Description:
Number of helices: 14
CATH architecture of the domain at 202-354: 3-Layer(aba) Sandwich
CATH topology of the domain at 202-354: Rossmann fold
Shape: globular
Strand content: 15-25%
Strand order of the largest sheet: 10-9-8-7-11-12-13
CATH superfamily of the domain at 202-354: NAD(P)-binding Rossmann-like Domain
Amino acid sequence: MLETISKHEGTPVSVGIKTQYDMAVEQFQRAADIMKLDPNIQEILRKPRRILTVNFPVRMDDGRILLYQGFRSQHNNALGPYKGGIRYHPNVTIDEVMALSMWMTWKCAVAGIPFGGGKGGVTVNPKSLSKTELERLSRTFFSMISEIVGPFRDIPAPDVYTDGQTMAWFMDEYSKREHLNPFAVVTGKPLIVGGSLGRDSATGRGVSISVEEAARHLKMNLKNSTCAIQGWGNCGSWAHKFIEETGAKIVAVSDSKGGAYRQSGLKYNEVNDFKQKTGSVLNLPGTQAVTNEELLEMDVDILIPAALEDVITADNAKKIRAKLVAEGANGPTAPEADDILFRNKVTVVPDILANSGGVSTSYLEWVQNLQHLYWSAEEVDHRLKTIMVNAFAEVWKTTQKHNVDMRTGAYIYAIGKVTDAMKIRGWV
Length: 428
């Protein structure tokens, strides 16, 4: 029996509703206008160079065959091979992966690593599949896109609801096609098959480094600062750990089920132990329950939105009381909200800078794979910090030069680098 479930299972996009891709293009356009970027270059950079859509069958454990739909968007590779995650989620759409691949182009350019932007996904609820079904889906999907990926063409990585095991299946499937062991075809792998030390904590560590650098430029004393973290997943939890080590006090955290607040502070180990036992930070003993919406508007010095996109909007931006926002999530702030925050003198370290620790350490994993020489965790962390500090300095300098918010400054810097590469290669 064949059941088709390839249609998008999310809410249909209505005419007039701004999509993630619309938001990505609008953010690009703001910077392009300030730069007075050549209209021909603008036209090239507004759209991905390639989008692959695949429909593929997967046999379920009970014998049924279901048809799934997946995508791989490759935005621009002027600076190097495409790079970006693959996510499994019921609401994955072609619009989403287009936006995310564009953001990855800017993120890699900001970080100063030799990659372009890519992104992929499968429209599926992975929680409804057994491990064997998930493996069959992963292997089939990767075999379908393998004609456009490779260690020097396009290097995928984990994303929403994919992990090191998924990447191991991807790598193994690709190795069958190529008849060798090309560990560098994906990053975010388990250590035993070419993964890098420091990769799991990299995105959160990058957010923490961004907070430290921003605080230094803003002359904030982190030891006297309070912080709230929306989204206590991989990024948010590691950010908690590293920001706590700076001396700042984390007073509120949340996940998809709700949040916890304590004025005297929440220690990383306490929150981690409780979440490991219960699956959520909600109802942590000795805390006050708060909603995700309430957490965003709390009276804290630092806010880390590390959960979903589009949570800071024109409706709630004026209620943000933090003076420093570091985006752990992709696209958590709408363009209209950026304007309000900038007018209110709130410094926003944008996602393409603040959460670039993940792709930066993916780059370090790729380099280690290619040279077959692996570094200690301390060396990886040191190299990551160097990348992040240098990236922050360049974005801050660009921001001050043009008197714009940090997102626009980051875009101007990134677009300039990609444009220069396109020109020197003779594309324009």
